[in-house]
Structure formats: C-alpha cells, structure tokens
Give the backbone structure.
Amino acid sequence: MKTTDPFAESLNNPKSFTLTYELVPGQGAGGKKVDRLLEFARRAREDGRITALSVTDNAGGHPALAPIAIGAEIQKIGLEPLIHFSLKDKNRNQIESHLFLYQRQKFRHLLVLGGDFPKPTYYGQAKPVYDLDTIQTIALVELIKTGHYRQMKEDEICNHPFDFQCGCVVSPFKMTEAEQVWQYAKLLKKIRAGAQFIITQLGYDLSKYENLIRFLRQEHITIPVLANVFIPSPAVAKFMARGGVPGVILPKKMAELMQNEDKKQRLLRAAGMIAVLRDIGFSGIHLGGNGLSFDDVRFVLDKAEQIQGADLQSARENAHFPIRGIWSLYKNNTGRQQKPHPGAKPGCRPLHHLMHRLLFSRTNPVSRAFGRFCRFCDQYHTTRLMLTGCEKIIKGLLFGCRMCGDCTLSENTYLCPQSGCPKKLVNGPCGGSRNMACEVFPDHLCFYVQEYCRLDPKTTLHKLGSEPTLPPKDWALEQSSSWINYFQGRDHTGGNF
Ligand code: SF4
C-alpha cells in the first residue's frame, strides 16, 4: 500500500495547483456506471494531473452506492479518494463508526458537508438526521486526533494514525446580504474548528470567486481553497437555472446560450474558467460535470494550461456570467434594495432578551430565586412534571418550542432552530437556501435569514464568525425542562451562567 499522499503534498505546496475531480456513484452496486467511474480513475491515474478523486455521499439526497466502495477501488488504482462525508444520514455514533472504518481503510481526506435534504424513496421520505453539523463534526475529528476525546485503548489502536484532513464547503454565490454574510461567518467557524482546505460551491460569477479570495486574504486565512468548476450538459444547465439543485445558481442567460453550443465550446469555456481562477489566486480546481469522459477532462486541462497572458481576458469574458441583483461583500454593485440587514426586523427580541436577563443571569436576584425554585422542583417527580408542563405551554406558545431540553433561544435571537429550521442547525445555515428561501420549504424564509434580521444592528460578519460554536445536543435531555437543566448545569452552558 502506498504511503505517499500526492493530494496532501499538492495542497500543502503553495507553488502547486491542485486538481480534483468529482465522481457521483449511482443507485446500484455495479453495472456500466461503476465501470465508467473506475475507467475514469484509471485514466486519471495514468495522466497524473488529478491528485484526488472525490466521491459523493448520497448526492442530491438520493440513496446511492456508499462512497467507501468506490473509494477503496480508487485507492487500489493508486489515486487518493476524497470522501464526501454527508451528515444528513448519520448520527454521531454513525459518524464515529464511519471515521474508524475510513481510518482502517486508510482514507485520509474527508469533505465534511451537511448534504441535501433527503428525497422521497422507500415508503416516502427518509428521516433526516443532522445530529451534528459540519462545525461540530470537524471539531470531533480534531478532538479524536489530539486524543482529547476517545483515547483508544491498546487493543483498539489501528496500526496507522487517526489523521484525517477535513475539508469544508463555502458558497460565495449567495444572492442576499444575510445569506452571504452567514456563509462567510460559518466558514470562519469551520476553519477555527479545524478545516484544512476549502472547496467552493459551483458557480459562474467570477467576481464572486474574486470576493472569496479577497475575503480570505483579508482574514489572513492561508489554507488551500479549490474553486468548483462544473461542466453541466445543456439539459442539466436548464435544470440548474430553474433552481433544481439546492444552493446552485446558474444564470438563465448561460443556460440559454448552452442550448446552442456543442460540447467543445462547453469544454473550452471550462478551460478558460480554470485559467482565470488560477490567475485570481485559487490553490486549485475541483472539477466535475455530467457525462464527461476522461478524454473530455484531459482536453479541458490541456487547454487550460495553454491559456495565459492576453488570452485570459477573452477567457474571462466567455466564462463570466454575473448574477443580476446579487449582493456583494465589497461593493453594492446592483442597485437592488437588499432588505435583510442586522436589526432590520428585531421582532420581540428586545423583550425576550430582557426576560432572559431577568431570569437567567447569575447576578440577578430574581434569577437566583428562580434558580432555587427550579432546583427545588427537580427534587420531586410531581413538581418536576408541573414545571416541565408549564415550560412546554409558555415556550410552545411563544417560540414553537419542541422541548429539546437544551435551550439555545438566547444564542439564536429568540427563534427556535428545532421548530424553525428543517435541518435543526444551531451554528449557522446550510448552503441550500435560494434568494432567502429555505431549501426544504421554499415558501418559507430561511431560518438564518430571519435570525440575521433580528441580530443586534452592530453585528458584523467578523463578530458573527467569532461567536462560540454551540456543542451537539444531548438528546437524553429531550422532553425535560430546559429551565431545570440550565440551573442544574446539564445543558450546553454546563452551569457557567
Ligand atoms: S432554514 Fe435555512 S439553514 Fe435551515 S434548512 Fe432551510 S435553508 Fe438550510
């Protein structure tokens, strides 16, 4: 088994331009689709420019061949697999179990992502999991790595280290201020948790790629960042332009143009895009597409290498599809009124904040008395039940509370993520929203857009990104009183109030 890691070496070498390609397993264990993926891997290995092949994990929310199957075959071929580690289908035990499995398999690179909401399959829609979010998962990997959690016993240790390199995803293509600011703020948290490389969402507005590089430089972030260059077929481009893929924005103009183009024109555009993104300052490219053979990809890479100097300008004109009305981090280039900004719609937040400070602050005598009352009620079954019932009614009416037992209302502008966000995310949004609408319920505003409008008006992106990460919920507390849990130190505050 090889011990060198060309993908990590390339990522860690600032002079090299890293290339990865995304493989999407289908809904079966074998057949022509799998044969095509493996043939692609063999050809990529011979060519030598692609250092890792990423393998999706139930892409689009559909069940598919697990990435470990294709990953193991890629490894045998002699290429590095980059396994997508999607959290929609895994609870924390399954996450750890998969980490051990991947360690045994000597997989070294994971792309940690929330994943698209499950789509209907056997007897309807699968129950989405999202037990840990991306930040919490990256933090878990780091904790296991450093031995601060789950120190392996002598007879459990694998003969190679638990040493995953976790990547994360960011979208620089969000339409509105609230969504974009959240994306960057969450990126800061993922990096703080231990993410070691970044892959962008796919997009075709090159100025947004520039914004990302500028943002990373401004924040002195030096971890490698790969731009996602996706070459859709004309039919898939149409589907994406209609909003068919969560979080993906493909301008209608581009989809229309593509209907009259042949494959060579599409490949040449991608080649130009790679050259421009390299010039912008990306450390590499994460390439993908529908129905591409390795010959197509080789053509794209060959052409991209030839585009330099004066050719870059025309390549840029051919590949740049600005999105009308999109908000920009660095200039208001659209003239479109952007509604959400922190503090735009505070709702009842100030009142709830006042109540919270009165009842749940160590320095407040009312809070101390309430704490004594809660601790008293916790001593007896009947009083505990009565207080829990009271909390259920009051918070159910006010916040749509689901009685998770570990309340994060004060950290989420007094909106409840358990009832407001279908993925129940507590540390920032997923990447699936579209023009402020939720990925899962497009008729609803994304929970985090609502939260953004209620933030203190002085909140900056940087402040949002430096907020402490909320830990995973302890589901043993479900249906118990969060008031009691708070004063007994059983919730995420651990008694530090
Ligand atoms: S509410 Fe926002 S964060 Fe939650 S699933 Fe919908 S788009 Fe994602």
